[in-house]
Give the backbone structure.
Amino acid sequence: WEGGNVSTLAGVHPRQVVEDDMGRLDLEDVKDVFRLDDDDHFAKTALICIENSHNMMGGAVLDKNYVSSLGILARELGVGLHIDGARIFNAAVSLNTPVGDLCEGADSVSICLSKGLGAPMGSILVGSKELIRLARRARKRLGGGTRQVGVVAAMGLYAIENNVDRLADDHERAKKIAMELNNHGFHQPQDGNVQTNIVYFALPEKCNLTKEEFAIRLKDDYGVLVGSGYSRGGEIFRVCTHLDVDDDGVDRAIEGMLELSSK
């Protein structure tokens, strides 16, 4: 969706479906917005896309049964199912489900190697041989062909082989942050229920700092970076735990957020 690229580059018209609080699409809603190529007023539906874990829903996870049911529906409708799996390994660890089982209902999955898995760069697209052939052609047309990528592949392979199980540590650290913020009056989606490594929050009403001042002070005084500007009005902040954030870093982040919120 960045920069409107799905329309400007692929000529695709996206149709958004309202999700529930855990990032799930209602199957009846999917059926309702499905369109055949028999009406000139509508774009033909060709693909269903979901995200797992779901960023804007605070890292919420979609379980195997749900993904499989959506895959069955996609096949009934004659369309594909794609999973934006930038953090699919986070979802798999949270659910204690093999990542392959979690994706078996999908036709394609994209995976980021540089988020929770901690590789310096890189992403993977998983799909059929023909899909990958077409994806490589599209990448080439867009200037994405890269030489000497073995070093990138090596970093990604190391991340997959060594950094998956430790994602549970990130999840526990994120839950600790969420619990402390929830106990001190910070507004949190889903009442602070965190499943993976993402924590969203808004400042408590008693805080006298603006959201801009809070982010600047947190960075300058405590060395903690937070994403900001989420939600209508930009009131929501986001923090993510990852392999470069240890227990001391989490404690420093909590200390800074609590102290600044009382200013």
Remarks:
- Strands lie at 47-51, 80-85, 108-112, 123-126, 198-201, 227-230, 236-240.
- The mean pLDDT is 93.
- The longest strand covers residues 80-85.
